[in-house]
Amino acid sequence: MQSKITQYTSEIETFEPKSAEELETYRIKFLGTKGIIKDLFDEFKAVSPEEKRILGKVLNQFKQLAEAKFNDNKDKFIGESISKEAGEDLTLPGEGFEIGGRHPLSLVRKEIVEIFKRLGFVVAEGPEIEDDWHNFSALNFPEEHPARDMQDTFFVAPIPGENVDTEKKGEYALRTHTSSVQVRLMEAGKPPFRALMPGRVYRNEAISARAHCFFHQVEGLYVDENVSFADLKQTLYYFVQELYGEGTKVRFRPSYFPFTEPSAEMDISCTICGGSGCQMCKQSGWVEILGCGMIDPNVLDNVNIDSKKYTGFAFGMGIERITNLKYQIKDLRLFSENDVRFLKQFQTEVV
Ligand code: DAH
């Protein structure tokens, strides 16, 4: 027995496992339930008491040696041994989840909504397939008036079997602007209104870097007693300071929209050059960001709101445009191509 132990001891001392398999073979051979150590201990039971005194110590030392060899090596190979079964090394760091990010337009829409929420605006939505009344007529676009040509419309056939009131509503179209939601909101409730209406809109435009057949707008509506153009200016001024930073200048230029009177377009000092002139602002120092105005009394009358008692303002902006000015994106098509190399750059927050 003594000689066996000596022989195994040198075997163990020189053993350098090169793989998990080798280590496992070693473990079974020496430490396994039918292994050498078990056998030696069985043998040990049968030896004489004198021999026991000497051999007991030797055997215990041998056992410790065999176990230590295994323990010293087991960490090296444990992953590998599992990998044989699972086909991969589970001790490697996990691959982790790719956390999805928000689309830049969603990020900016959220930012816009949050700014107006601080002023008490609530969010409202309306359908993307819209009838003529909500998209045009109620908004004071007269029949056959060239103002309707301002926006190239995608008309859609009514769904067969739908009960369409053709006399009032006429044709269906993909909404050309979110102003239609103003009409739905005012028809459905009573003043005061203070709402923000984000949504997708469609226009029959050839797709290019600067135009797309669909894009996104945010519409604003404020109707109450004694609402003035000063309220409109202050509201939008606050919005611009919050979105683009304090010190951003604004200016209002007279404009025309059928549903507002007076109407204006609002420019801000160029976010890129700060007003000194660059490519983005075509050297003017100013960039247009939205249309606005006091709601035309005809619109209020169309939705049965007393235009003698109530006044209001409205505004509409393109989210793509606001986003471009924030991030200097030069090609609108990037927003809808789903190229992760583009989208990844905006993964600033996940909510
Ligand atoms: N609907 C307009 C457009 O799509 C934008 C607009 C202008 C909305 C003036 C308004 C407004 O509410 O008052 O071009």
Task: Describe this protein with a few key phrases.
binds 3,4-dihydroxyphenylalanine; rod-shaped; 2 domains; 40% helix; 7-stranded mixed beta sheet; 3-stranded antiparallel beta sheet; alpha+beta; BirA Bifunctional Protein, domain 2; 351 residues; 10 strands
Commentary on this structure:
The chain is built from twelve helices and ten strands. The chain has 351 residues and is α+β, with helices and mostly antiparallel strands. The protein has a seven-stranded mixed beta sheet, with helices on both faces. The chain has a three-stranded antiparallel beta sheet with strand order 2-4-3. Strand 7 and strand 8 form a beta hairpin. It is rod-shaped. The mean pLDDT is 89. Bound molecules: 3,4-dihydroxyphenylalanine (DAH). The site of 3,4-dihydroxyphenylalanine has 11 residues, from strand 9 and strand 10.
Strand order of the largest sheet: 1-5-6-10-9-8-7
| Outline type | rod-shaped
Proportion of helical residues: 40-55%
Query: How many separate helices?
Result: 12
What would the average pLDDT be, to the nearest integer? 89
Oligomerization: single chain
N to C succession of SSEs: HHHHHEEHEHEHEEHEEEHEHH
What's the count of strands? 10
- Molecules bound to protein: 3,4-dihydroxyphenylalanine
Can you tell me the CATH topology of the largest domain?
A: BirA Bifunctional Protein, domain 2
| Class by SSE composition | alpha+beta
Into which percentage range does the β-strand content fall? Answer: 15-25%
Per CATH, the class of the largest domain reads Alpha Beta
CATH homologous superfamily descriptor of the largest domain = Bira Bifunctional Protein, Domain 2
Q: Using the CA coordinates, give the radius of gyration.
A: 38 Å
CATH A-level architecture of the largest domain: 2-Layer Sandwich
How many domain units? 2
Alpha-carbon distance between the termini? 70 Å
Largest sheet: 7 strands, mixed
As residue ranges, the low-confidence spans are none
